[in-house]
Batch of 4 targets.
Target 1
Amino acid sequence: MADDPEAAVKRIKTWCRRFLGYNTHALRYAFIGYMARRGVAAQLVARITGHVKLDYILHYTQRVRAEEILGKINLS
């Protein structure tokens, strides 16, 4: 059991859902947003997160930046 990577991944996913209330994809998405807000290059973020195409990273980072801009706009 200790040498079974699939069982370990399943335990991690279960723990994240149970104790954090998020799935591992949401945590990955949050990490990408965190890195984008700190100005980390998209190529490096893609390498760290295992994304082959930069399109995915750029999609995530553009959304983060758009949310930041919208948050600064006072609509009242």
Note: The mean pLDDT is 84.
Target 2
Amino acid sequence: MSAIQLYEKELAFQADRRKATTEFIKIVSDLWYDKSIEIVLFKNQVMDRNVSDIINLHEYAGEFVQKPISIFDSVEILRTINDIHLPPSKLDIGKLTYEYHSDDNNYGNVKAFVLDKLKGAGSGNGITPKDVVLYGFGRIGRLLARELMAKTGKGNQLRLRAIVTRGAITPEILEKRANLLRTDSVHGQFMGTVDVDFKNKAMYINGTTVHFIEADSPEDIDYTRYGITNALVLDNTGAFRDKEALGRHLSSKGCSQVLLTAPGKEIPNIVHGVNHMEFDPDSLKIFSAASCTTNAITPILKVVDDSLGIKKGHIETIHAYTNDQNLVDNMHSKYRRGRAAALNMVITETGAGKAVAKALPQLMGKLTSNAIRVPVPNGSLAILNLEINNKTSKAALNTIVKKYALEGDLVEQIKYSLSNELVSTDIIGTSAPAIYDSTATIVSEDGKNLVLYIWYDNEFGYSHQVIRLAKYIAKVRRYTYY
């Protein structure tokens, strides 16, 4: 084959691949809006992605499983999914495509394969949609609003109905809040529409009404005035941290459950995927989603402890600065945090080491922890220095973590990175709370000491963990195939 013939062949293949990717995007959209079926690719979001994004995700998937994941095969399986009857669900097309081409695939055709793999879906589990109220509208509150509205679909799960803020809601304030929702310096443009209804003190987010309520005290609010009943309140203010204070929400009309987006006292601190099944949403009213760092390190610590046993260890977090710090040097109640956040690395404390034991009691007293705040606005890194009971190697340890990232209860929590070039900005926008840096892993010569590098988007990844837990609490989790 001549050089020009080879070139023409490459052009034809790229055209066919991009055409197939366009069909992929259309079917993904149809499944979501017509059937409330969400498609992901090895846990990566594929909604609102362009052609190049989808092709790159397929390339990553092939590297991850060390076997080509073809867009043409993905489209063929998606067509079949679209043709059969399934209840609202969340399906990993990457895993399905990988399994279809596995060595032990004895299915005669794609339809037989899909029907067998998804036979556990049944006809649906009678999900009752849940009203949601955001109490607070800061960094986490706005990301929660973005994700809740982006994933509303036909409204079968969580329905964002209202946002509560302090102070008067004037037209100027409402417009400012709308602009903060539309555009974010770290996370970019909101992939949706935001219109303001000044008269009714509301926003139309993706065409759906979200009321803004002004209140200084949770118990003074009557949510039923807005048609909101039996609501789950996501308190992201940080003002209420214990059972008594958070219980004030339950005195408001229309609220039935409360989820705190921070570590809490006297209430269950939950890392979804690790210990959420230990708590019954029917018998408890108040929950905590723990901290972003706890959500990042706990899944990895569980993997290591379950597989190799942890004797002791230290956790050092290299954490992006937050609005708790000062822009310029000023007074602060905590040591060192008064210094300018964008100019200094700041040693400070973190409770993550102790907090892990609330989800993994067997690690009580085994871990110490500290933190360094650094001059980046988002994207953090936890360094786990662990002494283990059973010897391992870097290759063996990476294989263990990769297996947990591919299948099991922690597939939503752990993303496995293959890149030697990974830096903090690369992980912004990652929905998994923990990104395991496989190439940076260090194992001592005797195989008993590990140094693990766990990246995390301390805003976006944590917000997704909050929503996963909220769905569990609200009992609106769909059938999933990961």
Note: The two ends are 42 Å apart (CA to CA).
Target 3
Amino acid sequence: MHHLWLMLLPFLGLVSVAPAEKGLEFPRYDGKDRVLDINDRNYRKAMNKYSMLCLLYHEPIPDSKELQKKHQMTEMVLELVAQVLEEKDIGFGMVDAKKDAKVAKKLGLDEVDSVYVFKEDRVIEFDGLLSANTMTEFLLDLLEDPVEVLDNALELRAFNRMDEEIRLVGFFKNQESEHFEAFKEAAEQFQPYIKFFATFEKTVAKQLTLKMNEVDFYEPFMEEPVTIPEKPHSEEELVAFITKHRRPTLRKLRAEDMFETWVSREDDIEGIHIVAFAEEEDPDGFEFLEILKEVARDNTHLPDLSIVWIDPDDFSLLIPYWEKTFKVDLFRPQIGVVNVTDADSVWMAMDDEEDLPTAQELEDWIEDVLSGKVNTEDDDDEDDDDDDDDDDDDDDDDDEDDDDDDDDDDDDDDDSDEDEDDDDDDDDDDDDE
């Protein structure tokens, strides 16, 4: 699952280049082994010892030195995270897919090269970038309460700025409310990927236009939320609604869930993604993103429309790879369709490099994608046509070469005949003498 885009970053951002001042000392691996080799004898003890257990399910250690080095780098990521979170009651371990197959089966590990987190009776799969920074942030989020409470206007302002994420907010009588308890239990099912908020304050609820026991669902980049119908809600009803509507029209690729976003069959259209590259801090990128948001808001009713926005600044190490693979210039905004299995792609032609497409032009192009008029197979056909043209050119060149050879042969024959005639004339002259 993670092979296409996996980039191990065990030390990036964790080792200071210049001498560190007090308070800015980034952690360095101290050499102590904290990651357990999980097997049939110790896995129960490990699960009982820690409040959370983080396990990497990996292929058997290979014979190749290059692959062994990659495995060691992966282990170093876990060691560094384990060191940083040593006081947080989180255990770390590795499960060999061959040697520890029985344990893997008992624990329900089925996807090699994936990280699984066991918390109480839940198993959460980590689908993010395997770096120390990203994994640490992910695990710290899991340690927090699944529901954050909004008590005042300042906290509400912060909530309103979280437009890049799926989030839910509900208004309840108090923390002892059975309806809040159902909301909290539903939140645990989606933590930390989906944010849940609640308020018990009438003034905050009024600004959110929430009635008692009502829950609003916010899709990324949408201006208005959707109120979940038929309040109050049970845990099962909330989970069912979120599962059905968690596929957003426009979502941002984030390090903490990038593989879930990229590989998820819920977010692609018959194996392809609509992908937009735009730097939010760049004027052109910001303008293009605003156009993209406008199109997404106007077409959020389309069930098949799901656009993945990537800010290249968030994935600097991947920029050369993307430019080479997709054959696009990421210094300017781009939008295209990408096949998630082979990274084949087709990108929207922007006729004027100075002007970005209008919302209507972008909407027309997206309609062509959804209807199948624009797809990655057309690009394959064009490549095949180019190959055929090259073959035809080669054939023409061969024919021309053959004609040239024939002409040369004719010239040689004519020269030979002329030489023979000259020789005959010379012989006749000798006879006369």
Note: The longest helix spans residues 376-432.
Target 4
Amino acid sequence: MAKVKRAARPRPTGAVNVDDGRRRCKWAATDSMLAAYHDREWGAPIRTDSGHLERMALEVFQCGLSWKIVLVKRDALRDRFDGFDVQRVARFDKRRIERLCNDAAIIRNRAKIEATVSNARVFLELAEQHGSYVKWLKGLDASTPRAIAALYPLFRTTFKFMGPETTKCYLMGMGKIAAAHDKGCWRA
């Protein structure tokens, strides 16, 4: 009788976090700070305009860098950007931007700093037209792949430093579209 070859057991692709044994997406399994962000924030709805400005700014600052760097500098970014208070950030002038560009505690990329200030101003414009940025965002359709695809050029033309990949990560990160998790991740 021929030996029947058993199918290999499928292995989850998410890595195991050594601290608690939970399977997580590979990007979040190597560090406790990344794991905490993944477990508590990634894909969770944001309910305030300042929360959205912070998340968008983090995505902008992350471009070309690792999430670990952004999360390490997050408290300093919050402090220097006045808690991401939309009205305050929108009023940042050239002197304030210059100070930020010389502040070693944060990511000192002028284009990203200026984009965050510009985006705060856009948040105010949208809030004036729709009652709040959150209300504007809720009005955007993300129910189909075609509707989601239409959001990428909208964000690219409305905001600074928000290309398709950054927009996709922002929309996933704040729960507007389903967050992608590795197979086997406890949040998948």
Note: Confidence is low (pLDDT under 50) at residues 4-12.
